[in-house]
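2 proteins. here.
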Amino acid sequence: MADLAEQLARALVGRLDQLADELVADILAENPGYHDAALVTLAELHRSCRANLERVLQLLGDTVPRGEDAYDAAAVTGSRRAEQRVPLDSVLRSFRLGGRVLWRGLVRIGKESDDIDRDRLLDLATTLWTVVDEASSVVARAYRDTELQLRRLDDHRRQSLVGDLLRGRGREAGFAAQAAAELGLPPDGAYVVFVADSAADGTPGLAMPQDTLAGYGIRSVWEPRDRHTVGLVALERRAVGCVLGLLRGGARARVGVSPEVQGLAEIGVAHDLALLALRTLPSGAAGLAVLDERLPEALVARSPELARRLRAGVLGPLLRLPGNERDVLLETLAAWLETNRSAAATAARLYCHRNTVLNRLRRLEAVFGHSLDDHRTALALSLALIAHRDGAR
């Protein structure tokens, strides 16, 4: 069998150009998804077919030159087609077509010569297809290895573009259009930026946001950045509330949401505001913090030093009281401000009598040394309580 295989393989090597022509014709006729002139030129396809047919024949006849890799042509083909984005199924189908072309060639030689034993020729088919399968395995392995490398390069490029946008490069002439094209986003129109903490188990704090939005035709890009996940969401004439409604149920950690901004040029500003919105929620909380809905909290979070001074300057006398009295008066003050300074509503919230609330309010005025009815006093107390809650976290 070995002598016959070598004899027939050498005979076919002399017909390589004809065999390569046949294989190219079969690929173009039966595997149209494989050949795209913009990716694989006819000349390259012919060279590749010839090189792989020659290697298979050398393997079949055990005539691979000493020191050469028997599967180098297959590996080069797999890697190159991955770079050209030719589907792997199409590449492997072309190798099967190559096996068919070689078998046809072997049959022709068998018919041309009365000296070839037909039974031995049929037995050789098993060896041929074993070699083709081995070459196909090398093709698939090289294809997947290259595909993985390309994916890593694509991921790195996407991370780089998002990072540049967050740093404000979207305002540079031409950069926004370039980034939009590569990220698959519109260069103009309204955007909103999300910043999500990691959940307690280390997974993203917003579950599958890109897939969720894509299901409704909303384009977005999500990238891990430091300890957060950042999302750029193109509104494209949709209301922010629509996006919030789709994502709110997936929040498993703190998520900050920026106001709506125009174009990729403003992504850097929106990112800063989304981070600020996130900081208005206590550590360990889960939910969406929309900046425009939490502006007082954002004002306090923006300047920790001023927040500490506000807390000490406004609430200092109250915070110096004994623990039980301090806590009761703080709870009463917070409820009174949150109920628009209504003693009756405060009493209902705290499950006590209205007169009890009035007595506590008079005690607060005595502690602070001034009336609580002044508007600026109420504003300062509200902000100071926010600063107090933040400081207590």
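next one coming up
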Amino acid sequence: MSDEFVERTGPQLAPPQPIRNGSGATVLGPRNPPREAENPNLLVPPRTDHGSMPNLRWSFADSRMRLEEGGWARQTTVRELPIATEIAGVNMRLKKGAVRELHFHKEGEWAYMLKGRARISAVDRGRKTFLDDVSEGDLWFFPSGVPHSIQGLGPDGCEFLLVFDNGTFDENETFLLTDWLAHIPKDVLAKNFGVPESAFANIPAHELYIFLMQGPGPVGNLTLDLSGGEGPVSPWFSYRLHSQEPIRTKGGTVRIVDSSNFQASKSIAAALVEVEPGAMRELHWHANAAEWQYYISGQARMTVFASSGNAATFDYMAGDVGYVPRMMPHYVENTGKTTLRFLETFRSDHFEDLSLRRWLSLTPHDLVRGHLRIDESVLAGIPPQKSPVIPL
């Protein structure tokens, strides 16, 4: 939130007005003050914002919930956030024992566990098997076409974020086991499995999607379920992100994960960023892919520069999605009083960013001074080591 906005709103006794230093005017017509309060930098943009920019924010709170007996799901795709053409996301909740049924996608599926525990299973194209229990902060990746399932564990199940490597993905158009077999004649099923047709008398007449089952036992008790395959998958489909030593700065931490350390994840790279109050993710850009963000906790503002004099500032809070088209410079600042935590994800096999500070520090300083008319002390003071999060 800009200082100008804070100065004008005071104790918040009345809704803020779109006025800045004599520019603008009061709102006389209908208003939505709660929504305006979520986006103060749209109501009163900073002086540096200019031109026309697409919307770069969507809240999962505005996505339609699909409610099932075992939990729920909601999604953010190009239908909700049209600019986000490279990546789509699904937020899903499973009760204890509930199963996201056996299925597969045309897209690769990357996931971050938000809360609770889950059991995930898969069989890859080479008849190799995968089974693991994951908890908060863990990741998984299932390649395109690999069948898999997810089941909630523990006293209250789990909640997780799914990221897909195609912005047009639709969670309601996945290939589900029950939906598939419901549309195959029973005599064909009997012939396929070499059993009487009566064996399939009770299969569901429609998809189950998310349904309740009895909770599974420990992984160690499931060795019989894995018999007959060609051994465990390699590379492994899950990753303990929070076990990774982060890049630490005075302003926060960054954990980077891509195919270099999570070999299974060939189409999604990511960074888990933590920013302390007042600190910011430095001014930077990405040349290899657009950035799809998910805000886990805290609040933030981000200004994106689109060239040609166009720039816009957006505000974010937990549960929001942000998007930055490829090449567009931006920063993310913690505007709250608690640690800001968010994910940066990219449709790429590797993480890559380019830093404004690094660019200017490694360019002949007389050339930079000629452009910006700044003192040499500014350039000389840039630390030589990478510092993706800058303190207050």
